[in-house]
Amino acid sequence: MTIHKPSRALANVQAVIDGGGQIMVGTIAPIKNAAVAHDGTKTLAMLKRKSNESIPDLMLRLDAAIMTAVSTGQRVDEINKPTSDTHYQLRKS
After folding, report:
1. Residue 59: inside a domain, yes or no?
2. Is the pTM above the cut of 0.85?
């Protein structure tokens, strides 16, 4: 997957989708107000929508999180708490 600097609106979101991955926004049970990027193999980013954050702003954050995840190799995760035993992750079927 080619990572793009934010010069093109949502270029990294598009790269995930064009590469066979998926973007999910909304309720991803049991999490409400989430945005998730999955590249078809692994989850790249799991964001929690901030109070008063617009959907376009959430999508811009998701785009940036995809770029961060791919460039560092580390998932961006705002959903799971490091001290929690419960972890949500999309898995390949």
Report:
1. yes
2. no
